[in-house]
């Protein structure tokens, strides 16, 4: 079967052009939808934001977060309500406007966002959680974030891991270790693969 | 709901240009991401990628860079003025003395760009083929929404083939 799709284009008030196509696109470019999907978001002024019942229909997750915690406390990212400190490791490379330092955190109940601490202007983060539905890999988190405080602040690369290889991530908690977030917004996105 | 939609894109063709300007930016998104592939005409291996918000070249930007140059890591406060105007450095871009056909890549994230109750801030990642990799944060000391973004090389022009695409990401 061919030439079964017709498109009529007006040439004047009394005449039109009939064009026949083999494809339902009828001469139009194909639509290539984004593979990046909004899942959920929260704007809060409390100590934590949670995303629960995260669908398993994506390949990767991304959190875009902006906010600050005036209590001089770091942010902490944990999964599936697991607050076991031995289950998380964090390594970072950070610049504070004068020196570059690298280090790590262990013994914290989550992946640590050190650059979000104690400032009066928001820290902004892009947090990628790779292969979050895997049931045979530990979950690795890749983070780029920073905050400028007009002469101080921080910019950092962070690598974190949740040492759980048998469970897909179904919930995420992003909390201030003490105090509350201010002017904070969190948005969770899914990336198809 | 799918998001990460292209808002606008500009590719330098024909001849080099002094700047790339996106005006009248839609306010329908939560964040903006500028994805850049850049090369400058300045006779040097690198030059600095500069940006301004809402055509404002006043002394209202402050930034920090974390840089690796192939042998060591450093961090510094990173601001730029040409003696008259002020700009926000966003990364180190490739320039004319670099190997031919090499362009630097930059991804610049503007968070909450339409909000009116918080200073605007971008976080950027730059990859320059001349051994430099960088992360940059820069703050714009105004709460007003971003409606215009303009990018410049610190010296020379953007060479032919340079490209900047703006994407919008919407939460909701």
Q: How would you describe this protein?
A:
The complex is a heterodimer of chains A (193) and B (172). With 193 residues, chain A is an all-beta fold. Chain A has a single domain, classed as Jelly Rolls (Sandwich). Chain A contains no helices and 14 strands. Chain B starts with a strand and ends with a strand. Chains A and B meet through strand 3, strand 7, strand 10, strand 11 and strand 12 of A and strand 1, strand 6, strand 7, strand 11 and strand 12 of B. Strand 3 of chain A pairs antiparallel with strand 1 (2-3) of chain B, so a sheet runs across the interface.
Observed structural traits:
heterodimer, A: 193 residues, mainly beta, Jelly Rolls, 8-stranded antiparallel beta sheet, 4-stranded antiparallel beta sheet, 14 strands, 52% strand, elongated, B: 172 residues, 5-stranded antiparallel beta sheet, globular
Helix-strand makeup class of chain A: mainly beta
Number of helices of chain B: 0
* Count of individual helical segments of chain A: 0
Proportion in helices of chain B: under 10%
CATH architecture level-2 label of chain B = Sandwich
Q: What are the segments of chain B in which pLDDT stays under 50 over at least 5 consecutive residues? A: none
Largest interface, with Cβ-Cβ < 8 Å? A-B, 40 and 38 residues
Q: What portion of residues of chain A belong to β-strands? A: over 45%
What is the secondary structure topology, with strand pairs?
The complex is a heterodimer of chains A (193) and B (172).
Chain A: E1 5-10, E2 16-21, E3 36-44, E4 48-51, E5 60-68, E6 75-79, E7 88-95, E8 100-106, E9 111-113, E10 123-130, E11 139-148, E12 153-162, E13 172-176, E14 182-191
Antiparallel strand pairs in A: 1-2, 3-14, 4-13, 5-10, 5-14, 6-9, 6-13, 7-8, 7-12, 10-11, 11-12
Chain B: E1 2-3, E2 5-11, E3 20-23, E4 31-38, E5 46-53, E6 61-68, E7 73-77, E8 80-81, E9 86-94, E10 104-110, E11 120-128, E12 132-140, E13 148-153, E14 163-169
Antiparallel strand pairs in B: 2-14, 3-13, 4-10, 4-14, 5-9, 5-13, 6-7, 6-12, 8-9, 10-11, 11-12
């Amino acid at each position: 079967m061919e030439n079964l799709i017709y498109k009529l284009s007006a040439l004047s008030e009394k005449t039109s052009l009939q064009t026949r196509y083999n494809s339902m696109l009828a001469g139009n470019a194909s639509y290539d939808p984004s593979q990046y999907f909004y899942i959920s978001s929260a704007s809060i002024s409390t100590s934590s934001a949670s995303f629960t019942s995260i669908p398993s229909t994506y390949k990767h997750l991304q959190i875009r977060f902006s906010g600050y915690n005036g209590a001089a406390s770091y942010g902490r990212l944990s999964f599936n309500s697991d607050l076991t400190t031995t289950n998380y490791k964090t390594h970072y490379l950070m610049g504070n406007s004068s020196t570059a330092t690298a280090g790590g955190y262990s013994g914290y109940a989550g992946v640590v966002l050190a650059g979000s601490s104690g400032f009066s202007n928001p820290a902004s983060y892009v947090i990628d959680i790779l292969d979050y539905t895997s049931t045979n890999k530990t979950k690795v988190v890749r983070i780029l974030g920073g905050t400028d405080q007009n002469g101080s602040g921080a910019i950092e690369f962070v690598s974190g891991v949740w040492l759980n290889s048998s469970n897909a991530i179904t919930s995420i908690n992003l909390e201030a270790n003490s105090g509350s977030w201010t002017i904070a917004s969190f948005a969770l996105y899914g990336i198809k693969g | 709901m799918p998001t990460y939609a292209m808002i606008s894109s500009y590719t330098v063709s024909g001849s080099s240009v002094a700047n790339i300007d996106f005006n009248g930016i839609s306010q329908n998104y939560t964040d903006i991401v500028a994805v850049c592939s850049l090369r400058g005409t300045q006779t040097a291996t690198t030059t600095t990628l500069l940006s301004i918000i809402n055509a404002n070249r006043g002394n209202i930007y402050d930034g920090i860079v974390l840089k690796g140059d192939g042998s060591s890591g450093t961090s510094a406060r990173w601001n730029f003025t040409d003696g008259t105007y002020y700009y926000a450095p966003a990364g180190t871009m490739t320039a004319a003395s670099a190997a031919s056909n090499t362009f630097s890549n930059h991804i610049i994230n503007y968070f909450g760009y339409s909000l009116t109750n918080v200073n605007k801030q971008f976080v950027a990642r730059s990859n320059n083929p001349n051994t430099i990799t960088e992360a940059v944060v820069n703050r714009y000391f105004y709460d007003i929404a971003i409606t215009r973004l303009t990018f410049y090389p610190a010296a020379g022009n953007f060479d032919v083939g340079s490209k900047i695409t703006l994407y919008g990401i919407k939460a909701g």
